[in-house]
Design goal:
The chain has helices spanning 25-30, 67-71, 96-101, 107-122, 134-147, 154-157, 194-204, 209-233, 240-246, 251-263, 268-271, 275-283, and strands spanning 5-12, 17-24, 36-42, 47-53, 59-63, 76-78, 127-130, 158-161, 175-178, 183-186, 238-239, 272-273. The protein is α/β, with parallel strands linked by helices and 284 residues long. It folds into three domains: 5-83, no CATH class; 96-186; 216-283, no CATH class. Strands 5-4-3-6 form a four-stranded antiparallel β-sheet. Strands 8-7-9-10 form a four-stranded mixed β-sheet. The chain starts with a strand and ends with a helix. The model is unreliable at 279-284 (pLDDT under 50).
């Protein structure tokens, strides 16, 4: 990749991986609307992903062209703003706003609680949602499963219980949240969820909020699983930029994933040489 190119990662739901896309500053600059479409043909069997990227290098939409469509699609092209918010799935039973509101009476607090829930699910801690109307509790769980489809163990991780059953929960590492009182009863780990709060807040400001968040979390969950696999399978020390490349994540997000891995008891400080991260901090 040249100095004038940027790496952007797009999550491909067909191969369940983050796909690396290269886009130059000049290509973004020349797009009158500030949006470019980048085509990636990859995988086995081979398939295509068309990502719409804005000036801030955020993926604004995803399409999966057919083989016939690919023939007429350039590798990188400018597109109109109206084409950007393209997602080929339907929303859940709830909108994202309704789902988040179950986790706090005020939106700011709801976003924080919801972000803590996401981190606990990412590190595979058991989650208990309390609601005396179990049908309502199961509906919240269903929408969480829809949102976090890349967490394969989610259905087993999340349980819906009523208040009478709370005393029977013995697991010390559980995240317990009262959906009726909209407050956490117990959190098993202390987490810095600032990045998750940011992406939830950003998704809520978008028209396609549910699947914008679903997409961003799919990218993070994939990279985190790969990060844990790499750090657990090898004792070799790695440089942070090299590791970010290996786990297919934007370098700016690597520190967040490393901090979460520390919560799981993985010694990232002795395993990862944070030269690039240190340089970035020193330059601020």
């Amino acid at each position: 990749m040249s100095e004038t190119e940027n790496e952007v990662y797009a999550f491909c739901k067909q191969c369940k991986e983050n796909v690396r896309l290269n886009i130059s500053q000049q290509e973004i600059k020349e797009a009158e609307s500030g949006l470019v479409a980048v085509l990636s043909v990859h995988g086995s069997p081979q398939h295509a992903l068309l990502a719409y990227i804005d000036k801030e290098l955020r993926v604004r939409g995803i399409e999966y062209p057919t083989a016939i469509q690919i023939k007429d699609t350039p590798q990188v092209s400018a597109v109109d703003e109206s084409e950007a918010d393209v997602w080929d799935e339907m929303e859940g039973d709830f909108s994202l706003h309704i789902l988040v509101d179950f986790f706090g009476k005020q939106k700011k607090k709801a976003i924080v609680n919801f972000s803590h829930l996401i981190v606990h699910i990412m590190i595979e801690k058991p989650v208990y949602l309390i609601h005396d109307d179990k049908a309502m509790g199961r509906l919240v769980k269903s929408n969480l499963v829809n949102l976090l489809t890349e967490q394969s163990q989610l259905a087993e991780l999340v349980s819906v219980i009523d208040h009478d059953s709370l005393a029977s929960i013995k697991k010390q590492d559980a995240f317990i949240f009262d959906l009726q009182m909209t407050r956490p009863v117990k959190e098993s780990v202390e987490v810095d969820s600032k990045h998750f709060e940011k992406i939830v807040k950003d998704a809520l400001s978008r028209e396609n909020s549910f699947f914008q968040l679903k997409y961003e979390l799919s990218k993070l969950f994939f990279s985190y699983r790969r990060l844990v696999d790499i750090l657990k399978s090898s004792e070799q020390k790695m440089k942070d930029r090299e590791l970010a490349h290996e786990v297919a994540i934007d370098f700016s997000l690597l520190s967040t994933l490393l901090d979460i891995a520390e919560i799981e008891g993985i010694d990232t400080k002795s395993r990862v040489e944070r030269d690039g991260l240190g340089s970035a901090i020193r330059s601020i």
